[in-house]
Amino acid sequence: MNKLGLTWKYFFYYLLISVSLSVLIIFFTFQELKLKATADLKQNLLNQCFNTEIHVRHLLSEVRYSDLKQEVDLISNRTGYRISIFDSSGILLTDSKQQAEEGMNLRSLTEIELARKGYIGVDTRVDTTYHQEFMFVAMPLYVKDTGELWGIIRVSSNFDDLNRKLFLVMRNLIIITAVLILLVLLFSIYISRSFSKPIKEIANVADSIGKGNFQARIFFKRKDEIGALSRSINEMSTELQQQFRRLKLEREELKSILESMNDAIMVLDKNKRIVLYNKEIVKLSILDKSFDLFNYYFWEVIRNKQLDDLIKEISTEKRDIKKEINLEDRTYLASGSFINEPPRQEIVIVFHDITELRRLEQIKNDFVANTTHELKTPLTSIKGFAETLQLDLPENQKRYVEIILRNVDRLNNIITDLLSISQLERKESKINLSEVDIKDVLENIITIFSEKLKQKDINLNFHIDENIKFIEIDLFWFEQLLINLIDNAIKYNVPEGRIDLKLRQDEDSIILIVEDTGIGISKDHLNRIFERFYVVNKSRSRKQGGTGLGLSIVKHIVSLHQGTIEVSSTVGMGTVFTICFPKQ
């Protein structure tokens, strides 16, 4: 069923309103006219009673009833009213109605009864003879000298004339109202069409714009609200055309960027269907290379348990996650980002091929391990022979052997640190968590550094929360971390300085703080001290026997435990390292 147009809607609205108002107006007008006509008829009948009294009083006083009959008939013929004369007891003396029987006692009639009591009697009823509705008005006649009731004059009339007049008035009123309704309806059609035509045109243009035809315009000019609407739609169309042109350009630029990238990229919607991808993804796809991957589920394109777990983790935690995954014989760093811009919820996955990088890292690690292993044997021999030579040399020559031994120790330290870093950087490197007794670890640290502490007269203080007896951590790497931090704190501390080691815990982490009163580190160097082989003062580091790898090892150990490390320092005041280990 077709919906009614705006013109016909207005037509029916106006028709309903006009007819309803007209019916109400006609109804109340008819009631008012009827009341007014009835009141006028009553007054006319009463006036006729007074006129009749003037003509019949002398005939009644002279008891000339035959003349009375003629006079009553004459008045009735002239006025059209029915005239009746009663004596004081209510007996009909004469009546202009031919069927009336003189001598009838009609005192029980309402108007007669009221007139006998001295009132103007009025009654409306259906006449039994004519079977028509009549109005009766009766007036008492009194003797002038005594005031005694002498007789009663009654004048009556039916409602035919009144109804005929009312009908004529109502007919004319209905005709006028009908003409007015017709004019209103015609005007409503004209008005509604003057609105509906431009609205239809606006709707057609809007529909064309919605279908992508941004050239569509509204050309009529009006200064009312419809004109303002048409101008707004034209402006909107122009703006949309420009926006879509920009979006098209941006999309083409994005497509060019994606296609030029060496990394594989795919974007998934909330249902895990592919909504955007580049050509590199096609190379990873198990489907035919000619297939359009749009709207495919990602697992239909790349079947990989590690990728499936990564996407599930991103969807659950709604954060950026990176993981290495293996696809066939290659290794990729898959970086996933969660985009939450309601109603859009998308996941962007970027596959960066790190196969060559991992191969080079493996070569490097193998080279470091093999080289350090090969170097350790001759260095051990050099150190042994140097120590033997030192025993037989005179005092003035022993310093040369001491230089050899010092550099051998430095090389041994570098080799040891390189092996540690190599081990920490291995992909398969894992931590062995165990319940570690803090007291045993600290006693071991004191044993290791007791000689160095005495040489520089440095105080090593421990501040351990009473509720910390054991911690869940990798003992070997935890000791290595403490050794490196405290060794640095001793090397770069001032004589009679202080080192404070603090250990406390909160709800979800163990917090280790190592604070010294050493020479400090300037702000220019703070962001690089964890780089391998980076030293703040090369000559001082070489003199102290530093390798430039200690803090790098510390950073790797903290990362291996999924912790964080922060450093703050003031030159001349000291340095503070703060490490947080998540509770395992």
Strand arrangement within the widest β-sheet reads: 2-1-5-4-3
Q: Determine Rg (CA atoms, Å).
A: 60 Å
Number of strands: 17
Overall mean pLDDT: 83
Summarize the structure.
This protein is an alpha+beta fold. The protein has helices spanning 6-61, 65-79, 110-116, 160-210, 225-260, 279-284, 298-301, 305-317, 355-392, 395-425, 438-456, 475-491, 523-526, 538-544, 550-560; strands at residues 82-87, 92-95, 121-126, 133-142, 149-158, 264-268, 274-277, 321-327, 330-341, 344-353, 434-437, 459-464, 470-473, 498-505, 509-516, 564-570, 574-582. The strands form 4 sheets. Strands 2-1-5-4-3 form a 5-stranded antiparallel sheet, sandwiched between helices. The chain has a 5-stranded antiparallel sheet with strand order 7-6-10-9-8, with helices on both faces.
Describe this structure in words.
With 584 residues, the chain is α+β, with helices and mostly antiparallel strands. It folds into 5 domains: 6-165, 2-Layer Sandwich (Beta-Lactamase); 218-253, no CATH class; 261-351, PAS domain (Beta-Lactamase, 2-Layer Sandwich); 357-425; 434-582, Heat Shock Protein 90, CATH 3.30.565.10. It is 54% helix and 21% strand. The protein has 15 helices and 17 strands. The protein has helices at 6-61, 65-79, 110-116, 160-210, 225-260, 279-284, 298-301, 305-317, 355-392, 395-425, 438-456, 475-491, 523-526, 538-544, 550-560, and strands spanning 82-87, 92-95, 121-126, 133-142, 149-158, 264-268, 274-277, 321-327, 330-341, 344-353, 434-437, 459-464, 470-473, 498-505, 509-516, 564-570, 574-582. The strands form 4 sheets. It has a 5-stranded antiparallel sheet, sandwiched between helices. A 5-stranded antiparallel sheet has the order 7-6-10-9-8, sandwiched between helices. Helix 4 packs parallel to helix 5 (225-260) and helix 10 packs parallel to helix 15. The longest helix is centred in the first third of the chain and has 56 residues, at 6-61. The radius of gyration is 60 Å and the shape is rod-shaped. The chain starts with 5 loop residues before the first helix and ends with a strand. 18% of the residues are buried.
